[in-house]
């Protein structure tokens, strides 16, 4: 149940050198590109609040009946899902979506099947492309799209290792979503692998620390990736006194760089600090994960 994910969040030290809880004011949208960072740093979704100022052309949904061919592929896919034949099911479901990309109820049925086979990347893609109009605002009738776009992927593993390493599970979910869209086979251009996009050299070092057998393939095993990534994130949170911004900066840009930035920008508020991160990729990464973190807390956390 989603209730079990509600996690008492300790006071997060988001201000550099200060100790404050996540703010819950409205979206202020002060970032330079004028796209809200979803707090500058921890806003909760408010009903009726607007969350995207610019939305690329969404798919226009219709109530037109789906074609018989699309329905046929969907039903074949459903049978294969029930038989546990995941890759064959995916082929049928993809074909059905190509044939029927605009019928809302059809896409919802398709999404439910993707959820059953834990195909989170395709689930997120449908939400962001086909149901994007519902992600502009947070209303009662749009909650389904937010839950699709921010799924509770690998929930038992996330809960287990978040508990073991005393990390907020919503932070872990946000990091995995932004690192890999919950695709355990993901490989980045730089060579980072798996759900938590761990570099091979980092993975080898983590494995030695936690007594885990290491191989390149292990980085693409969901349980091992979440275990190793959780341990590493906890190490970074400990190193930076629970400061989520610095821990995320360290996860992406390296702990040495994050420590230098902490010293260099020690007097800044958290949003100013994020804007001052010299690495463009890390700056964008920290914003994306913080935004996802706020969304996960808003959708699934204690109301």
Automatic annotation (TrEMBL):
Cited InterPro entries: Lysozyme-like_dom_sf (IPR023346), Transglyc_AS (IPR000189), Transglycosylase_SLT_dom_1 (IPR008258)
UniProt GO MF annotations: peptidoglycan lytic transglycosylase activity
Designated name of the protein: Soluble lytic murein transglycosylase
Cellular component per GO, a single term: membrane
Family: Belongs to the transglycosylase Slt family.
GO terms, biological process: peptidoglycan metabolic process
Ranges of residues in domain Transglycosylase SLT: 158-272
